[in-house]
């Protein structure tokens, strides 16, 4: 392997489900001696995980303040801080970074010591490839979603003026999948599809952004691995008509810092101490990531189903941004009634919780990063997808029989407490869930294989070097 070190700029979209995988990729590249310039906004950079001392000299954070936009709260710099109907305004503000980014790139490329070798971009900064091309810097689009999701959305010709016109068209597997598959959206999931193809306040559709960065990238990089996704990666290469390079699953390292106490309605608790007191594989971990949120009505139904199951649990529950401060997000008296079997708190050290011997299952929204983190430890899933790619991930997980799906009304997405209690007990306690628990443990061999992930990064670096030489 060559020892020529690269200077790489990474530029994620303003959502933590995007920024964190970009950071993990940055750290993996910095571990190999490459210099990284990580672009984001001031508050996001402050909130990103601290970099290990041995890597901090190689990862420079470049801060671009967002321009002020009418209807966008002044302090809002990521999607968690705004209701979904205002995300278009965030994209409009994000597009305001085009001019300062262009000025930075021009200055950096004028000096040999700071010149960039590559730009790794997300779907949102669709104006970056043209700017980079003007300075002779190649780009690769890095997808934080699984290959299955990208296959489902189709080639660039489908993203721009494609054959699927209505939400109903997305409730069946697309015609370009040549093998049997259940990869399709439920009607209650598909009703959000038109937003992807419609112009928002930024005057650009998400489909246009994605098609632009795919078509103008030298090759496509993706958070995936051959051992998990080989047939989907091969199909994606055909659809995009350019090379698709998996960078590995990028599992974050287990946090070794001291655990701080978590605040609950009944006082402070050290969740690791609490887990230490529970029997092995008896606790269900419940979390929906940084952005996915159920309605208050469904949150109450979920809570009552958890209570009805009588299973031990830890629930990392954030108040949705769209509800007022005084809104009760859990049923009256829930925490008092379940105090002997569960803990509800706004924050937990997720990797430490998943790694704990007392945890035996995970109730999840099926976000790709959460799935990757979970299967490092081989936990079976209770599957409750909410938005974005989660329904598609849910179909694949269901097909692999590594989780139990909460039954829902196809049209409304509603579910009942009785069904929640039933699937939780199946997963955690009953004979019916034994095969699922076994399959999840088997999958750990792929997701926890650090050597395989390191090999994917090494191959990715060699690809960056090869393409740079060919430019």
UniProtKB/TrEMBL annotation:
<protein>
    <submittedName>
        <fullName>Glycosyltransferase</fullName>
    </submittedName>
</protein>
<dbReference type="InterPro" id="IPR002213">
    <property type="entry name" value="UDP_glucos_trans"/>
</dbReference>
<comment type="similarity">
    <text>Belongs to the UDP-glycosyltransferase family.</text>
</comment>
<dbReference type="GO" id="GO:0035251">
    <property type="term" value="F:UDP-glucosyltransferase activity"/>
</dbReference>
<keyword id="KW-0328">Glycosyltransferase</keyword>
<dbReference type="Pfam" id="PF00201">
    <property type="entry name" value="UDPGT"/>
</dbReference>
<dbReference type="InterPro" id="IPR050481">
    <property type="entry name" value="UDP-glycosyltransf_plant"/>
</dbReference>
<keyword id="KW-0808">Transferase</keyword>
